[in-house]
Amino acid sequence: MTTSRSHLQISHDGSSWWLEDLGSSNGTYVDGERVQRVALSGETTIQVGQGGLYLRLSVGSDAAALASPASSTPEPADDP
Description:
single chain; mainly beta; four-stranded antiparallel β-sheet; three-stranded antiparallel β-sheet; globular
């Protein structure tokens, strides 16, 4: 697999999710097309570099809630 140490970044600007290639030499591909920066929506397949690393991303109305750190933190358990 040929990926860079800092290959890509996915960020949210409050209304949209963005993928940005961070200057990798082997590229980032979204749905088969090489990209530098692209807005993400719906079902997306991301290929990182040239090789076998593929990511499937689903962006929808619940995506912000799923990405929220508060929603992924488990509630503390009560000790009996």
